[in-house]
Amino acid sequence: MRELPLSRRQIAIAAAAVLALLFLGSRLLFRAEAPAAPPIPTAAATTTAARSLLVVDVVGAVRRPGLYRLPHGARVADALARAGGASPRAQLDLVNLAAPIADGEQVVVPRRGSGGSATPAAPGTPAGPVHLNTATLEQLDALPGVGPVTAQKILDYRQQHGAFASVEELDAVPGIGPARLEQLKDLVAP
């Protein structure tokens, strides 16, 4: 066999051509395997995603107070966890951690010694507004004109229909009519 005399220049040109072919081939190969661009969200998809989350304001004795987005069906305990948990001064025995939360609700975690109390300030009068969406049976029972049976009906209604959107929604609870609603409207909040 006869050897072909190749100059250094010819070898350099051949190597450059091979490298160029490899480069172009790899670009075509990787372009074909590149993932497709994600779809552009439509207004309907954005609205559906926004509806699937609740916005809750967590304040008081928590590590990171602020607004948090939580899925529907979340509880006060979930909101507290998203806020970094309770601070060492939190008085968690005044918070119903199992209560379901509603969109736009404010979850207040009281501090020890801040004056927050689970007992009424005066006989038959709660210390502050009772939040219908987080109140316990005992807190509802402490309201004037609401006994343990009606308090349980309020809890049952909340469990079946979700969080109260307004105080006026109490009118739908059996045993609470217009007169009782008028008596309670300044003592409760959704």
Summarize the topology.
Elements: H1 8-33, H2 43-51, E1 53-60, E2 66-71, H3 76-82, E3 106-109, E4 130-131, H4 137-141, H5 148-161, H6 178-184, E5 188-189
Parallel strand pairs: 1-3, 4-5
Antiparallel strand pairs: 1-2
CATH superfamily of the largest domain: Photosystem II 12 kDa extrinsic protein
Output the structural class. Answer: alpha/beta
What are the secondary-structure elements, in order, as H or E? HHEEHEEHHHE
CATH class of the largest domain: Mainly Alpha
Spans of at least 5 consecutive residues with low confidence? 116-126
Level-2 CATH architecture of the largest domain: Orthogonal Bundle
> Strands across the major sheet, in which order?
2-1-3
Tally of DSSP helical segments: 6
CATH topology of the largest domain: DNA polymerase, domain 1
Radius of gyration: 32 Å
- Count of the separate structural domains: 2
What would the principal axes of the Cα set say about the shape?
rod-shaped
Distance between the termini: 97 Å
Give the mean pLDDT: 79
Number of DSSP strands? 5
Largest sheet: 3 strands, mixed
Helix content: 25-40%
Strand content: 5-15%
